[in-house]
Amino acid sequence: MSKARVPWKAVAGGSIGNLVEWYDWFVYTSFAVYFAASFFPEGNDTAKLLNTAAIFAVGFFMRPLGGWLLGRYADRKGRKAALTLTVTLMSASALLIAIAPTYESVGYFGAVVLVVARLLQGLSVGGEYAASATYLTEATPRGRRGLASSFQYVSMTAGQLVGLGLQIILQNTMSTEALHSYGWRIPFIVGAAAAAVVFYLRRNLLETEAYDEEEREAGQAGRGTIKALMAHKKEALLVIALTMGGTVAYYTYTTYLTKYLSLSAGLPKETATLVSFCALFIFMCLQPLAGGLSDRIGRRPLLITFGIGSMLGTVPLMTALGGVQGFGGALVLSLIGLIIVTGYTSINAVVKAELFPTHVRALGVALPYAIANALFGGTAEYVALWFKNNGIESGYFWYVAGCAAVSLVVYLTMRETKDAALSRAEQSAKDSVPV
Q1: Which domains does the chain have, with CATH numbers?
Q2: pLDDT tens, 284-302?
Q3: Helix axes 269-297, 151-173, angle to 10 degrees
Q4: Which among 60, 46, 59 is positioned nearest to 384, based on CA atoms?
Q5: Is 260 helix (H, G, I), strand (E, B) or coil?
Q6: Ramachandran region of residue 100, left (φ > 0), alpha (ψ -120 to 50) or beta?
Q7: For range 363-383, the mean pLDDT
Q8: Over the stretch 26-55, which tens digit does the pLDDT of each residue have?
Q9: Backbone angles phi, psi at 50, to 5 degrees
Q10: Per-residue three-class SS string for 252-288
Q11: How many CB atoms lie within 10 A of CB 117?
């Protein structure tokens, strides 16, 4: 089992679209400091960011609907079909943001366009996460799933790095005035074009053996339905609870970090962006190492390590980051936080997929995860800025630690999933092995 080969072609096909999806998703927050005034011209910088962060959160609240619709679609029509559909929706939403009119042109109608685009993105990402997680997990044999599925967060982080890298290039080749005027539209145009390329690549993916087996033997009756999911209520609640602490910590040390270093620590925007870029690159490289480790020692030890580290380390780390004065110190502290988060990000996709049977796997991953993200991940940045705007910024650090504590209880009590059989063929092979 340990010598099973990773199907790299399938991993690459499932991941590259995820990269574009999350590039478009994260580039909104990366460039919010430049386009906030174009849609919300009144108020101070924090108030403007609060408005754009609220729209960011709106996209998250669309994710449960996307998780339900596209998770159902993936369970009934196939993982490949769902992956193709999600990247199509993301391309359309990125293009919509790129051409959104400003307040100066049409008043707050431009903000309405932003909201519509974020709703489409939320719908798309709500299904993308589950389709990608399910595809990567099902396409890989036991003993290698932790490694293969870790590339979901490799691709997610790579998408953010591409966005941050483009921001660094634009910051060094365009004036601040040009960036605020029209330069912020460039990354959204790039995202829409890249998604069109991925659409072609995903159409050539092969369907997973587990899904084909389910389709041959069981047909469509009951596949991907809420009724079928309710037969696994315990697992669905488990997904929500184990996601809670991880998603808040992840968005704290990724999307919110650049703003925090700029607004609270007082670092120049360019320095804060470079810190995030370097820290995320190292974070990305750590994902396969941790995912491969989970194939050997199990998923729970990594989750427990994350839970303890995030619960005890968030307050001192974020406090220290708020007072950091240079690139080096900010990078080291950011890396400590991201290393802790790796215990969650590297394996959370495979853990969720291993909890459910094939006929409801995509929906089982998508809907509970999307609910948790809507409640905790999508609101993380807004909650952080709210605490800051009310002069009690440290309250947010305790909030993150508290969410991690709740998830830690789940990690300590949940079952190990690394040896789960994801198909009838795998179960038969498992049963035939002498005890």
Answers
A1: 11-205+230-415 (1.20.1250.20)
A2: 999 999 999 999 999 999 9
A3: 170
A4: 46
A5: helix
A6: beta
A7: 86
A8: 787 778 778 777 777 666 566 666 666 677
A9: -60, -40
A10: HHCCCHHHHHHHCCCCCHHHHHHHHHHHHHHHHHHHH
A11: 24
> Of 139, 46, 128, 132, nearest to 93 (Cα)?
128
| Contact call for residues 97 and 188 (beta carbons, < 8 A) | yes
- 254 neighbors 160 (Cβ within 8 angstroms): yes
DSSP 8-class letter at 373: I
Report the percentage of the chain scoring pLDDT > 90: 34
Reported as a single tens digit per residue, the pLDDT across 337-355 is 999 999 999 999 899 999 9
Tell me the torsion sign for CA atoms 362, 363, 367, 372: negative
Continuous H helices in 175-256: 176-181, 186-202, 209-218, 226-230, 233-253
Q: Which of 40-49, 67-76, 298-307 has the lowest mean pLDDT?
A: 40-49
- Single out the residue of 333, 343, 349 nearest to residue 308, CA to CA: 343
What are residue 222's phi and psi, to 5 degrees?
80, -5
**Position 266: which residue type?**
G
